[in-house]
Fold this protein.
Amino acid sequence: MNHEASRSLYDRALSVMPGGVNSSVRAAPQPYPVFVDRGDGGHVIDADGNRYVDWIQGLGPLLLGHDMPDELQAAVQSRAAEGPMYGMPTELEVEHAEFVCRHVPSVEMIRFVNSGTEATVSACRLARAVTGRNKILIMQGGYHGAQETTLVAGDADDPKPSSAGVPQAFAEHTVPVPFNDPAAASEAFEKHADDIAAVLVEPIQANMGIVYPQDGYHDRLRSLCDEYGSLLIFDEVITGFRVGGLGCAQGKFDIDPDLTTFGKIIGGGFPVGAIGGKTEYIEQFSPAGDVFQAGTFSGNPVTMAAGLETLTFCAENDVYDHVNGLGRQLREGLSDLVADHAPEYTVVGSDSLFKLVFTRAEGSSQDECCANGCRQDHSCSRYDACPKRGTDVRRAETDRYARLFRPAMCEQGILVSQNQFEANFVSYGHTEADVAETLEAYKNAL
């Protein structure tokens, strides 16, 4: 493939944008990123005219693919033509809020914001106000946006900033514990019982290799929060309306969180975020309560139209059957491939998420119990070696993925996630032919 246009654009971008990009992960591909010209269903065409099967899908928001259904396109164009924003409320905000509250049982009220990061920032502020406490318990290897509370590394005894510019004093209000380790969570609560405002957790660690929760893990977090008077916050920015369908991942795992953060899909491809939850908590946002939260573009009518039409389309069509079916085909196909070509690697994912993690596990490939994606099943012969938390994925062959594997896939016309950690996303625009082409490319690359 010819990539001269992308290379030239990257050269220009380096002069005017830090690292040549506007979000760090986009600079990960070696030796420079693909610059996209346009999308087409489950595909993108780059600045050089190369066509790819696209499993990045905007890093998750494009559940329907790059082509908007006619009704979605009409709604977006109509709202944009009538005025892109007003700084005043619209009926669309109410309708979108009613849809989410109707389909997600834990959400009684919702506040729309502009990004997943803004949603988690506001959720943490709200939890601190509700409880009168300071500390937020998070999971090592989790991701909750570019915010000071969660840009924290280390452990519960020695939290420290994971980014320059975050004061150590901020990190001291964060309690990082290992995901899938109920004993560590219990110990943290025992030590900080009077000062944990909330547990902030992804239902599936979907930004660090797609790590599935072990049976009973989220139930234990729920019971700890109930016992100690803390709030349980589910970060469903990635999983919301993708894992578990319209009921989200909390429905799939039968958990009732106090607060939920959303993003990505609820904006239909436009910038969005939201905090939903119990009325007694959400009503504490201003102007109803004393927790300040505001934003010029919150509830933007174009975004509200796109998000509502996207979710309505999902409710009225076979979107989840389609994307989850293709996701299963990909995970099962990859399981067969790695059994023959790279048995130390681990296939992960659920619903319409999939990933091949370049783990260094010794011995045989995954057992049949994990053929549809690793489930940390104790009966699996590789249980001791499978990734049980996002931090485990850091020990995978990340350089091999970035420098050899991904470029090899790209040259075959397949775009997979920019690094070893990010998820791959199936869309309604993908087909079984795309799956077959992708599996053949994996086989060749491996």
